[in-house]
Amino acid sequence: VQLQASGGGSVQSGGSLRLSCEISGLSLRYYAIAWYRQAPGKEREGVSCITGAGTPDYTDSVKGRFAISRDNSKKTVFLQMNSLKPEDTALYYCYALYGRRDFWGQGTQVTVSS
After folding, report:
1. Interval 82-114: pLDDT, tens
2. 38/24 Cα distance (integer angstroms)
3. pLDDT, tens digit, for every residue of 11-38?
4. What is the rounded distance in angstroms from the CA atom of residue 6 to the CA atom of residue 48?
5. Are strands 9-12 and 108-113 parallel, antiparallel or unpaired?
6. Which residues have C-beta within 8 Å of that of residue 73, sequence separation ≥ 6?
7. Closest by alpha carbon to 29, among 59, 67, 74?
8. DSSP code of 83?
9. Residue 68: beta bridge partners?
10. Quick one: 4 exposed, middle or buried, by C-beta within 10 A (0-12, 13-18, 19+)?
11. CB 49 within 8 A of CB 35
12. Which candidate, 1, 54, 50, 3, places its Cα nearest to that of 26?
């Protein structure tokens, strides 16, 4: 199983980025997929998740700015991030969960400058 995150980069405050998590080795439709992030010196936090049925959820700090979506045919989950703020700067990870099976991908760096 591999989760390949991409799409990170450096943007100015107010900018946008679209992260992608390409997943191989599992039947994506059964898995909930989440995005986590970890800033230097801080604990990893959940940002957004989407169930196998496509129901999204977001942490309060990104509601109205971020949108998660999935394309099961392409085995990819996306995180559209708009109106980025410096406090969104972090290493972003994707995560897959189904029952007791879970998998982490490597991170993609997002840096937002003021």
Report:
1. 999 999 999 999 999 988 999 999 999 999 999
2. 24
3. 999 999 999 999 999 888 889 999 999 9
4. 16
5. parallel
6. none
7. 74
8. S
9. 79
10. middle
11. yes
12. 1
- DSSP E strand boundaries for 1-113: 2-6, 9-12, 17-24, 32-38, 45-50, 56-58, 66-71, 76-81, 90-98, 101-104, 108-113
Residue 25 in tokens: 């080795």
Q: Which amino acid is at 59?
A: T
State both tokens at 6. 């991409």
Q: Give the C-alpha separation, 68 to 57, whole Å.
A: 8
Neighbours of 104 (CB within 10 A): 13
Residue 49, amino acid: C
The pair of three-digit structure tokens given for residue 32, joined into one six-digit string: 């909930």
Query: How many CB atoms neighbour CB 106 within 10 A?
Result: 12
Joined tokens for residue 3: 């989760």
